[in-house]
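Minutes, project check-in
Item: structure for the 136-residue chain
Input as provided by the requester:
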Amino acid sequence: MKVYLIFLIPVFALVSCGKSDENTSDESSVESQEVKIENGVKTVYFKGTEKIRFRGNVNKDSLWEGKVSAFRENGLLWSVLTYANGIENGVAQVYHPNGKLFYSGEYEKGQKKGVWYFYSFEGKFIKEVSYEKAYD
């Protein structure tokens, strides 16, 4: 369980960056980092570096739109989530520090849906968890 929590923290950080900059728990840490938006692509850098923390397309309101990638400070891919108007909507994939898939699933309107798959650090399938819609 502790291992899962360690890997969920970056996902929450990515999720909070995708939402409006108002009322997000990660607001101060993102604002203290360099953020560039050019030609509809938003790039967030680790503080004081040129290393990319997040990168993805944004809409006219500067909310994440489409696939957004998160990276570890060493440059390795941490996660890829899909957004619609700043809300998780579509495929989500999170990777272990060794680059192997940790878990994957799908969001609909910000809520997990369908079957999510979890894998060990070595890449072996561990379990699947099903999520039902909590709204209509």
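Outcome recorded: The beta strands are 35-38, 41-45, 52-58, 64-71, 77-84, 87-95, 101-108, 111-119, 125-131.
No further action items on this chain.
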